[in-house]
Amino acid sequence: MKLLVVDNEEIYRDIISTCASARGLQTRTAASMDEAFNIFNEWQPDLVSLEVLSSNGDGIKLIRQLKEAANDRIIPIMVITFKSDDATMNACIQAGADDFLAKPFNDILFNTRLSTHLRNVLFSKETFQKNRDLIYFQSMIEREHRMAHQVLAHAMDRSEDEDEKVAVTRLAATSFNGDIALIKRRADNGLLLFIGDFTGHGLPASIGALPLTQAFFKAASENSSVAEIAHHFNSILIDILPDYMFCAAYIILLNTDGMLEYWGGGMPHAFIVREGEIDMQSIRSKHMPLGILDREEFEDTVTQVKLKAGAKVVVASDGVLEMNNDDGNMLGDEKFINMLSQQSDHAEIGVFQANIVDQLVTFQGDAEQLDDITLLSVKA
Amino acid sequence: MSITVTVEQNSHRVGIRVVGSFDFSLFNDFRAAYSDYLTGYQELIVDMQAVEYLDSAALGMLLSMRNSVSSETDIVIANSNAFIRNILMISRFDKRFIIT
After folding, report:
1. Are residues A79 and A41 in the same domain?
2. What is the tens place of the pLDDT at every residue in A192-232?
3. Quick check: B92 and A266 CB within 8 A?
4. Which of B49, B58, B53 is nearest to B78 (CA)?
């Protein structure tokens, strides 16, 4: 720690320097204002003691100049002066001085004050450094999130979002959370869907997405069964993800006859909407998410649901159901069901989806969206 | 501290109590909490009574714990509220943990 002593009298420069040196401080002295300002800028002291009567200038003005030069660093200025009247003290404090001691001063008092100021300086230096670190890490994470969005956008490029039977909406939050939705119509006209949610946020959450995406389109072209796909995806993720990461998912195949087959692990229940009725029981996760159980333990039991003509299946990531409004209330099943049941049965899937998204946006209001939101609707 | 560990005297049970938000910020602390008890214990009990929120990162941390701790040792996830219980059950954590 460095103390700059500004005093026109040599004896005080010595006394203050000696006191400070005894406490392990480095010191430099200045006998005039000009000299003080130059040393201040060149040597960058951590605190300053100042006799406002020093020659060649105005002490009050110097205090202002030093405070200005310090910018956002905290560099306490202790005025130690013979001119100890109230008016001078007020002027010094107004100009930005942090302390005021009258000469001749008591060395115990000086030491106590010095300790207090040093503590503040130390504390502010730590805070300053921590803030810098935080800003650094924050910008790194923002960059990673942007990169993750880009990686996933690329991965989902081949997804057939424009299929007339499906609508998918992806609303990205500032903190990317690893939602992924893939759509592909197979050669037999069956519609293959994948809705996944990787653990965690940012770039790490996206690492499993690339191989899964490739495997998805390959599986679609080979007419693989839902169970085979589940097995394969699980194997991929077991191999590449660390043990604390996994992917909650639905793998859904909707056949042309309305028979829906699915494998679900770790995802919220889906909704089947028909004639204002909502079924939340028929499509629900029965398994642990992908990437947890090893190949021998993995369960590939697939469930079949026969959809009636016109029925719509809605899959919402937990970002939808845990969405908050202005008042901090969570959307939850009940309000979401309410939104679904108001939709016309005859609406095209695109219109149906757009209406729900409108209502979600209205619900959200000005509240910040914390999670990525993925909403997928498909019509039988 | 957000995590406190208690070892019952003359017993083979260890309690790990998590307070507040159980999320990625506890990644290292949580691992440190059980790393001395990987083998030789009958039960590790993760007490969720004071957990207000739990995210998928926490689920991952629990799975990682299950992987590290001897398969002879039961891991009990105790005192979850309805919200947390629901999250655990959706991901079928009952297959690997005892949920009470």
Report:
1. yes
2. 999 999 887 777 778 888 899 999 999 999 999 999 999 99
3. yes
4. B49
